[in-house]
Automatic annotation (TrEMBL):
Annotated catalysed reactions: hydrogencarbonate + H(+) = CO2 + H2O
Gene3D superfamilies membership: Carbonic anhydrase
Family: Belongs to the beta-class carbonic anhydrase family.
This protein's UniProt keywords: Lyase, Metal-binding, Zinc
Cofactor: Zn(2+)
Protein's name according to its UniProt entry: carbonic anhydrase
Entry note: cofactor: Binds 1 zinc ion per subunit.
InterPro entries: Carbonic_anhydrase, Carbonic_anhydrase_CS, Carbonic_anhydrase_sf
Pfam families from the UniProt entry: Pro_CA
Enzyme class: lyase
Annotated source species: Phytohabitans suffuscus
One annotated GO biological process: carbon utilization
Lineage: Bacteria, Bacillati, Actinomycetota, Actinomycetes, Micromonosporales
Length: 215
């Protein structure tokens, strides 16, 4: 992965340099996706060639691995715009933290966006574990166990549905990134990065803000 040094002027042109402007670009891109007015930016041969020496994404997109959450599509972005990290249930491990820290520290990315969604299989499995006391086999169990803390925190609200658990898990992940990573915490204190949590509606295609720091 290339660092910022030597960035082509064409790539830097109009680059969102603050957490607030980066978030605005994401929100506007999602609106275009929802209304069917996508621009498909930065997806041509010129962009591909310009990016070859270096990258400078304006946002880290840390989301669930669900196939319906293709980040560049739902935010109408292109090559070099988003630094995407995805795990089932957007659970956090050392590899996730290291990847996000790389984007923040080496690439100077000003925004970290955590993206959860409705009908999340990891949340549903954690709810089943709470209701019935059973957990999946294999390494899927590790995913469910990491989501379980969020489900248990709102267990009084979630037994009849998943929305409260989805939102709680997004908030939990946002706070966890700041607590676990000194790199993120320091940049946040300096105003150089923001962390936002968003929930995506699969049927509508819309995102809405759930939590955030420094944005």
């Amino acid at each position: 992965m290339a660092e910022v040094g030597g960035m082509d002027d064409d790539i830097d042109s109009g680059w969102p340099a603050t957490p607030a402007t980066a978030l605005q670009v994401l929100v506007e891109g999602n609106k275009r996706f929802v209304t069917g007015e996508r621009r498909h930016p930065h997806q041509d041969a010129d962009r591909r060639a310009a990016l070859a020496p270096a990258q400078r994404p304006f946002a880290v997109l840390f989301g669930c691995s669900d196939s319906r959450l293709a980040a560049e599509i739902i935010f109408d972005q292109g090559l070099g715009d988003l630094f995407v990290v995805r795990t089932a249930g957007h659970v956090v491990g050392a590899e996730v933290l290291g990847s996000i820290e790389y984007a923040v520290a080496a690439l100077d990315t000003p925004l970290i966006a955590v993206l959860g969604h409705d009908s999340c299989g990891a949340i549903a499995a954690a709810l089943d574990a709470v209701r019935h006391g059973t957990t999946p086999e294999g390494f899927v169990r590790d995913v469910v166990e990491r989501v379980m803390l969020s489900v248990l925190a709102v267990r009084g609200q979630v037994l009849s549905g998943t929305d409260a658990a989805v939102e709680e898990h997004i908030r939990y992940t946002v706070d966890l990134l700041v607590r676990r990573s000194q790199v993120i915490a320091d940049r946040l204190a300096e105003g150089r990065v923001g962390v936002v949590g968003m929930s995506y509606g699969l049927a509508e295609g819309t995102v809405r803000r759930v939590a955030g720091h420094g944005v």
